[in-house]
Amino acid sequence: MISGMSDPKDVVHLADNLNPAAQRMFEWILSSDLTPGDPIPIEQDLATQFGMARGTVREAVRELRALGILEVRRGLGTYLSTASASTIRPGLVYRGVKQVGADTAGNRDLTGLREMVEVRALLECSLAAEVTGSISAAIGRELHALAARMDDPRDSASADRQFHRTLYAGVDNQLARELIDVFWDSLNLADLRLPPTNTVKATRDAHDRIADCVVGNDPEVSRDAMWHHFDAIRERLGGAPTQR
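Structure for GntR family transcriptional regulator, as requested:
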């Protein structure tokens, strides 16, 4: 049990179906003084430390690698991974794409996608407000140029992604930037499975408004512009545009 946890129910569980050996090793990692990038003991030493067979340790390490907790460096050993949101990407992409399937009655349940949109909207609204006033006129022009590229359906997705990356390039929060990328992948792949819609002009206008707002000095105006930029996809997912 992790130091400071007095009750077994307080133990942090990585996954419901995680191998008990991997769960035990995870608890040890959390309670240790190791930091991302540090090596962990070799397999034989871990087997001795935990009183496990080497095969059990090997399987635990494999599971923790799959979850992004550990990484193997060829010829060097096993290390704690550096922090990254990339490991949650497959699960969210899967959730996004498969949520656009029909149930046994032929109806679509898009609740999961709507929830994903609102989580991304909340995150981006906060960041849009944060960067307001720090975006230079030159970056503003770059954002408008990216918005203009959204007029071309063949280039729209690439331009949209670059718009949001450019907008938050100066944000000193790597996790937030990674999460936005993960949400973008998930929603973009799901979008390909939704009925087509003619929102090209609305998409460009929404991004142009964001670009105008973040160059200004009113964070609340930027927050509002970002919130409503999600209205088109909200409508496609069967929800009315929401009020902040």
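The first helix runs from residue 20 to 31.
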